[in-house]
Design brief:
Layout: H1 2-26, H2 31-34, E1 42-50, E2 59-66, E3 75-79, E4 86-92, E5 97-107, E6 110-114, E7 126-127, E8 133-143, E9 146-150, H3 153-163, H4 173-184
Parallel strand pairs: 1-8
Antiparallel strand pairs: 1-4, 2-3, 2-5, 5-6, 5-7, 8-9
Helix pairs in contact: 3-4
Length: 185
């Protein structure tokens, strides 16, 4: 009886190892996108405000899925910085078409969520530019059930000045600083 239990536990462990090994080999290699850097990828950034709730979002997250079948599959999880309501997604594949499939935000410790799915269009879907570099999706403001997106140079400058702090120790920092200088002229 003791041997049978031992074999059952060992068999279960071997099965778990095979399942985990299969998952890691069948999934896309994650390092491809994370190791690209500014010379081969796009840094996407945005800022989101909800005027109904006085812009006091505690945290929000968005999941975007790359839909362009000519590009490598990529899922982007973007979490907002709760202090400044911005989100960034570095190492996006140039030319990818990204669709918002999930959004949630926390307000007064209550989580609100929306599952957009891949059908239809949302105001925050985006197509990354073909050239590597920075891409400003806009400053999104939700008011009265509508989302307006400000992509003006003034809005971009405001958001870049906020996000540069998060990228001080990264290869993106000089690119962000150069863009700030361009916009300040």
């Amino acid at each position: 009886m003791r041997t049978k239990k031992g074999w059952t536990v060992a068999g279960a462990l071997v099965l778990v190892m095979f399942v985990l090994a299969g998952c890691s080999t069948l999934s896309p290699r994650r390092g491809d996108f994370r190791q690209r850097g500014p010379k081969k990828s796009v840094l996407v950034f945005d800022q989101f405000f909800d005027t109904v709730q006085n812009a006091e979002l505690q945290e929000s997250s968005m999941i975007f899925m790359q839909l362009n079948t000519e590009k490598k599959p990529q899922v982007v999880v973007a979490k907002t910085n709760p202090m400044f309501n911005y989100w960034t997604a570095p190492n996006i594949e140039p030319g990818g078409s990204f669709k918002l499939v999930y959004y949630d935000h926390t307000y007064m410790n209550i989580v609100y969520y929306s599952v957009a799915g891949i059908q239809g269009k949302t105001p925050v879907d985006f197509i990354a530019p073909e050239a590597p570099g920075l891409f400003f999706c806009g400053r999104c403001v939700a008011a009265g059930g509508k989302i307006t997106i400000d992509t003006s140079p003034e809005a971009e400058l405001k958001v870049l000045k906020i996000i540069q702090v998060a990228y001080v120790a990264s290869p993106w920092f000089p690119i962000i600083r150069n863009r700030i200088k361009e916009l300040e002229k």
